[in-house]
Amino acid sequence: MATPRFLQLSDVAEILNCSASQVYALVRNEELPAVKIGGRGQWRVEASMLEDYIARMYQQTQQWVKAHPYGGDDDETDS
Questions:
Q1: What's the pLDDT at 3?
Q2: Model-level pTM greater than 0.85?
């Protein structure tokens, strides 16, 4: 089955492994481009915009790691 062009915020949250409210905050802060569709104004994120966002986050993370080569308070460990 082909990937849909537009994703619901809950789908984006599942892909990013975060909450829908975190995705909504990304959209409202204009970090993740989205559109409101229909009379009820439901948010949708274009799949290509999500991929662009993920690529930007990889770049930002790489820059942060280079600037902080030995870790720091922002480091998160998975348990």
A1: 81
A2: no
Angle at 55 between CA 54 and CA 61, to 5 degrees: 90
Domains defined for the chain, CATH in brackets? 6-67 (1.10.1660)
**Residue 9 contacts residue 23 (beta carbons within 8 Å):** yes
Closest by CA position to 48, among listed 18, 10, 16, 4: 4
> What's the rounded Cα separation, in Å, for the pair 67 and 18?
26
Can you tell me the distance from the alpha carbon of 35 to that of 62, in angstroms, rounded to the nearest whole number? 29
DSSP secondary structure string for all residues of 16-69:
HTS-HHHHHHHHHTTSS--EEETTTTEEEEEHHHHHHHHHHHHHHHHHHHHHST
